[in-house]
Each structure stands twice: as C-alpha cells, then as structure tokens.
Amino acid sequence: MLTLKGLDKTFQPGTASAHHALCGLDLTLKDGEFVTVIGSNGAGKSTLFGAIAGSFFVDRGHILLDGEDLTYQPEYKRARKVARIFQDPMRGTAPDLTIEENVALAYARAGGRLLAPALPRKKRAFFREQLARLDMGLEDRMKTRIGLLSGGQRQAVTLLMATINAPRVLLLDEHTAALDPVVAERILQITQDIVAENHTTTMMVTHNIGAALSLGTRTIMLEQGKIVLDLSGRTRDALDVPGLLSLYRKTVGAELDTDRMLLTHERAG
Ligand SMILES: Nc1ncnc2c1ncn2[C@@H]1O[C@H](COP(=O)(O)OP(=O)(O)OP(=O)(O)O)[C@@H](O)[C@H]1O
Ligand SMILES: [Mg+2]
C-alpha cells in the first residue's frame, strides 16, 4: 500500500516566484491498483511523481510504502521500489549504449549496484522474451545502439527496463504523449500487461481523457496541488469523456485546460 499524507511542497519559497505546488495532498493506493491522473497544466501532477520518486523532499507530510517511511529516503534508494517514466523517449535510456547494455545498467541500478559488467544469462534470456513480446523485432537487436531506435521502440525498451525488477510502484508521466497514436496504443497495451502481471501499483498521468477512463480502475483529478476528484467503481464506469469533462467543470469551476488534450482513445486491433 502506498500512502501519501498531507504532502506539501513550495518551490522557491520566500521569493517572488514562489509556487505552492502540492497543498496538503492525501492519497492511498492499494497494492496493484492502477490509477490514472488528469489535471490542467501546472496542476502538480509531475510534482506529485517527483515527491514519490524522491526527486526532492516534501516540506511537510509523509510518504509510506507498505509501512516503510520513504519521506526522507534518497532518490537512488527509492529507485529500487519506485520506477518513473517520462514523456520524452530519449530520457530513459543511454543512446550510445546497446539495448543489452542499457538493460544491464537498469538491472544493476534496480539491484543497488553501481555497475554490472554484463546481464546475468538468465536475466538476458528473460529480457529477450520480454522484447519479443513487444513484437518490434527488438529481441534480435540486443547489440543495437539505443540511439538508432525509433521513439516508440525506445519508450517500449524504457518501459521494460523500468519494470525489469518488478518495482512496487510505477509512475508513468504521459509516457505515450510523444508517440504516434498507433505506437502509443501499443505501449499502453504493453503497460497494462506488465502492470497486471507484476501486480504493480501504478499511477499514469495522461492528457488522453479516453485513456484515463478506460485504463485502470480509478481516476483522480489534480488541481492546484490537491486532489479534487477521485473516481472509481460504478461512478467511474458510468462516465464517458464528455461526462468527465462536465464533472470537471462543475467541480473546479473552469474547463480542463491542457495544451495536449486528446479526447478519444481508439483501441487498436
Ligand atoms: N523545480 C521547480 N521550480 C519551480 N517551480 C516548479 C518546479 N517544478 C514545478 N514547478 C511549478 O509547479 C507547478 C506544478 O508543476 P507540474 O510540473 O507538477 O505540473 P503538471 O501538472 O505536471 O503540468 P503539465 O500538465 O503541464 O505537465 C507549476 O506551476 C510549475 O511551474
Ligand atoms: Mg507534468
């Protein structure tokens, strides 16, 4: 169980550009729960992920994972438990290293060692299997430099790397937003498979409102550093995209305002 209690964060406090990004945020996620997160630009979604991953310490509040207090644990220690993927496919991997070397690094990092000379044979076979599941022919390109792959292929590898050692929490920050729709859909499917298989507690920020409703079992809306709506069960099942946008309007008193909003979520295949 992941418990966030009263998280508070102000960036550049005491200056003219001070920004109160998290304002007493409370949230509890059950093991294996898959929660989608929506909210306007600047609502605090990425900041929330940064707080959980340990990119910075919160000013107030507590972060507990299965009873362990992570609040002041350094980021590198949390990385074994908390994986985070960003929008930019270039960000999660080292371009000059091969697929295999990247995976070896991810594996070593998740295991807490700084460098592993090579991936253990068993892990390598496992990872080849995982790559094969992507259906992108990458299992036969383990010696290819990551920099030569397309954005979608690279993000797929990033996703596999991030989950190679089954983290307890997976934070997806618009991880398909930079990909073309067909590839994005493929990555979303793979995401669902991996999350279900590993029973990983997952939060996914998306500007794709259709995807926010159709993936996972719960949707939260963040606004000005707070959760303003928390939808699950029948209430969520009964909502379509216009319904969700109208609920947002009623709750926040403004339109959901994002620069990259997508309303539909076409399922491929
Ligand atoms: N390191 C930082 N220093 C100063 N201000 C920051 C920092 N990080 C975030 N902020 C501010 O905190 C607020 C929340 O930012 P955040 O990136 O969490 O928004 P978001 O919900 O992820 O938005 P988007 O949908 O655009 O990605 C914004 O006003 C942002 O400018
Ligand atoms: Mg963001």
Characterize the structure shown.
The chain has 269 residues and is α/β, with parallel strands linked by helices. It has a single domain (2-94, 151-262), classed as P-loop containing nucleotide triphosphate hydrolases (Rossmann fold, 3-Layer(aba) Sandwich), CATH 3.40.50.300. It has 9 helices and 10 strands. It has a 6-stranded mixed beta sheet, with helices on both faces. β4 (60-65) and β5 (68-69) form a beta hairpin. α3 (99-111) runs parallel beside α5 (151-162) and α5 (151-162) runs parallel beside α6 (181-198). The two termini are 34 Å apart. The site of magnesium ion has 3 residues, from α1. Adenosine-5'-triphosphate is lined by residues 11-12, 19, 21, 39, 41-47, 258.
Task: Give a quick set of tags describing it.
binds adenosine-5'-triphosphate, four-stranded antiparallel sheet, six-stranded mixed sheet, globular, about 270 residues, about 35% helix, 9 helices, Rossmann fold, binds magnesium ion, alpha/beta
Topology, element by element:
Layout (H helix, E strand, L loop, with lengths): L1 E10 L7 E11 L4 E5 L6 H9 L6 E6 L2 E2 L5 H4 L3 E4 L13 H13 L9 H13 L17 H12 L6 E5 L7 H18 L2 E5 L3 H6 L3 E6 L2 E7 H5 L3 H12 L17
Parallel strand pairs: 3-8, 3-9, 6-7, 7-8
Antiparallel strand pairs: 1-2, 1-4, 4-5, 9-10
Bound molecules: adenosine-5'-triphosphate and magnesium ion.
Magnesium ion (MG) binds next to α1.
